[in-house]
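C-alpha cells for Arabinose operon regulatory protein. Go.
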Amino acid sequence: MRDYISHVAPFLSDFAEETLMVSDAMGYESNPDFLIDRSNFNNNLIMYVLSGCLVAEQYGETHEILPGHGILMDLRDTHKYYFMEKGHSEIIWLHFRGTPVDAVINHLHTGNMLPLRFEDASFEEHFAALYRLAAAKQLPDEFDFSCAIYSLLMHVCKTARINEPDGMDSFALAASRYIYAHLDEPAGLDAFAGHMKMSKYHFCRRFRQEFQCTPLEYIQRQKINKAKRLLIYTRLSIAEIACQLSFYDQSHFSRVFTQLTGVSPGKFRKG
C-alpha cells in the first residue's frame, strides 16, 4: 500500500524556493514490491522504518535498516532501496531540498557520512504531526514549514549513529521478525512456538523474559501500532483496517484499540 502527499507546499514564493527548506512529497509505503533504482534525482530523502527491513544501496555499500531506525540519502547520486522481506515492511519518508539543505548535505559529504543512518524512537511522532497538517491542508506558512523540516533534519543528524547498535539478541530478533511477517494474520501460539522450535510452555516463558509481556499481548500491541499508522497515512476505513489485521470484526477492533490507546479509532484519525 502506498499513500503520499505531493506538492506538500504547492504555492512557494520565489524567496522560499531560493532560501528555505521545502518538501515536494512525503508519505507512507508498505507495497511488498517497493523498489527504487535511479540516479540524478534532485532531492534528498529521509526514510524511517516502522516494521520489517529496508535495504538501501549507495556508494558501493549496502545498509539494512530495521524498525526504529532510519537513513538520510542524497538522491543526486545513484541509489537503490527496497524491502528485504516482502509483504510486511513499512516506512515513512520525506523528500526535501533547498539552499540550506545543500549546506548540510555538503557538510555530511565532506565527512563521508552519507548515507547517514540514525536511531530515533521519537521520529515517527514528529513526522506524523507534520503529515497530519499536510493531509488536512492546514500547513503553516512557508517559513514555519521550513523550520519544521529543519527541525527534523537536525534531529536526524543529532541522533545519527554510524554503526548499528547491538540491539536484540537472536531470540528476540527472530520472534519480532516472525510477528511482523504474520501481523495481518490471526494470532496463534502453536505456529509461533513451532517456528521458534520450542515447546509452547518454554517459548512463552522465554518470550516473557525478553519482552516483559505474553506473546499475545505483544502481538496485540503491534497490531494496534500498525492500525494507528494505517489510520494516519491511508484512506482505509476502520472496518477495512479491522479486517486487514484479522480482528473478529470492527467492534472487536475498536474495543481493543480504545483499551490500548485511550481513544477510539475514529477520534484518533481526526487527531
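The chain has two domains: 2-159, 172-270.
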